């Protein structure tokens, strides 16, 4: 039996060689550790002769972005591989194929998606993804509906809640998204130029009330099995294909947290476009595309979720009470808008930022984008409980960045 240790490239290559039927015997394998995320090792293994390749992702027992002082359970690797496999059955074609999971090494071997681009980088480059709204709305409607009390056996769901208990990764979210940005914390990474705006966040007690309400939902509302970290860095895309990766933050939580993650990261890109597209007309056009995408994702998600509910709903009372469906979807929209706001703010003043904004080399433009994003985030949080339509999120975004 192999005991857990962090692999090097040579060991990863040997393990790849041992995967039955994948690489031809004696293949000239090349391996590179390419992990640029916050938590894991990622090995890319290729065979130049056959053209075959795969990815091996290994969890480390600590948060790579901080170091060994921040221990993290390796069980997240099991959670990630089980969630990926589940997503593959519920949203076929929209996640990488899992070839193998090794529990001793906390290692998942999966499909190589190098022909795709991380969507965050694609959007920074101004790439449009015409099928994204269709794909991601299907992914979210299917994975959220079929793991909720509306779409699966309610006793089985309780066992699944237990199986996907993910305390260490939830704690990261609870701290980094729902606490640190609103206090003085060693975890924060506040750009000095906007310290005044960060101080305003710390002193805004009305805002704290709304964040506490959203935090409570994240802590207690086991509504469906979430991806848990559905930002544009967790999505590989081409104009024709979308693949959702990295569900290590999966747990049973409020559905709006996943939908809000997608919207927050499209809005962060919107804010950063002040720099990335210098031509005014082209930038206006791309920003319109981003907002249209948000509207399209919400409308398609709402429609697909209701279709699943009407066809496959298992809860008698919920099915027999049409007004409940409208109540449920409106509450989900309001949660989505609130979580969108929280996820924007954490990427500006919290620990982990986003390239869409942080990589802007011009100080003034970067500061303008950061301040605009904070205005959007706070307005969304402030207004989420009264929101009636997705148009309100769009209006708030446009107004803040004029
Ligand atoms: C310590 S991990 C920082 C962030 O990276 C992940 O992508 C999650 O968003 C997490 O909050
Ligand atoms: Mg990740």
UniProtKB/TrEMBL annotation:
Keyword Cytoplasm assigned: no
Quaternary structure, from the entry: Homodimer.
Database matches in Gene3D superfamilies: 3.90.1200.10, Phosphorylase Kinase, domain 1
Catalyzed reaction equations: 5-(methylsulfanyl)-D-ribose + ATP = 5-(methylsulfanyl)-alpha-D-ribose 1-phosphate + ADP + H(+)
Involved pathway(s): Amino-acid biosynthesis; L-methionine biosynthesis via salvage pathway; S-methyl-5-thio-alpha-D-ribose 1-phosphate from S-methyl-5'-thioadenosine (hydrolase route): step 2/2
Family (UniProt): Belongs to the methylthioribose kinase family.
Domain Aminoglycoside phosphotransferase: 32-264
Its job: Catalyzes the phosphorylation of methylthioribose into methylthioribose-1-phosphate.
Ligand binding (ATP): 40, 57, 111-113, 246-248
Enzyme Commission number(s): 2.7.1.100
Name of protein: Methylthioribose kinase
Keywords: Amino-acid biosynthesis, ATP-binding, Kinase, Methionine biosynthesis, Nucleotide-binding, Transferase
A family per Pfam: APH
Protein's gene: mtnK
A GO biological process held by the record: L-methionine salvage from methylthioadenosine
Single GO MF annotation: S-methyl-5-thioribose kinase activity
Binding site for substrate: 229, 346
């Amino acid at each position: 039996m192999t005991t857990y240790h962090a692999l090097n490239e040579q060991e990863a290559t040997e393990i790849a060689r041992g995967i039955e039927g994948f690489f031809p015997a004696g293949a000239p394998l090349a391996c590179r550790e390419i992990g640029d995320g916050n938590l894991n090792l990622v090995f890319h293994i290729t065979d130049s002769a056959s053209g075959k390749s795969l990815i091996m992702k290994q969890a480390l027992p600590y948060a790579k972005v901080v170091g060994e002082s921040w221990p993290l359970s390796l069980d997240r690797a099991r959670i990630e591989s089980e969630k990926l496999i589940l997503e593959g059955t519920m949203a076929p074609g929209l996640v990488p194929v899992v070839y193998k999971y090794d529990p001793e090494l906390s290692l998942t071997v999966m499909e190589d998606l190098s022909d795709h681009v991380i969507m965050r980088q694609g959007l920074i480059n101004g790439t449009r993804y015409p099928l994204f709204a269709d794909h991601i709305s299907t992914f979210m409607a299917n994975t959220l509906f079929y793991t909720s009390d509306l779409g699966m056996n309610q006793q089985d769901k309780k066992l699944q809640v237990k199986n996907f208990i993910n305390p260490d990764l939830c704690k990261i979210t609870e701290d980094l998204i729902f606490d640190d940005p609103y206090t003085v914390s060693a975890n924060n990474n506040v750009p000095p130029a906007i310290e005044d705006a960060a101080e305003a966040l710390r002193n805004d007690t009305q805002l704290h009330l709304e964040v506490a309400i959203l935090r409570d939902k994240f802590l207690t509302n086991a509504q469906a099995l979430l991806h848990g970290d559905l930002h544009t860095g967790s999505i590989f895309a081409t104009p024709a294909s979308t693949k959702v990766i990295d569900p290590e933050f999966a747990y049973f939580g409020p559905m709006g947290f996943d939908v809000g993650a997608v919207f927050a990261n499209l809005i962060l890109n919107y804010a950063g476009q002040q720099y990335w597209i210098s031509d005014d007309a082209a930038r206006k056009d791309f920003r319109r595309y981003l907002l249209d995408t948000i509207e399209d994702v919400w409308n398609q998600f709402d429609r697909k979720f209701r279709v699943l509910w009407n066809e496959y709903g298992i809860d008698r009372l919920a099915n027999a009470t049409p007004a409940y469906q409208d109540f449920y979807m409106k509450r989900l929209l309001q949660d989505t808008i609130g979580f969108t706001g929280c996820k924007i703010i954490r990427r500006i003043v919290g620990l982990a930022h986003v390239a869409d904004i942080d990589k802007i080399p011009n100080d003034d433009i970067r500061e303008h984008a950061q301040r605009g994003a904070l205005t959007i985030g706070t307005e969304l949080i402030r207004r989420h409980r009264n929101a009636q339509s997705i148009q309100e999120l769009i209006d708030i975004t446009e107004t803040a960045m004029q």
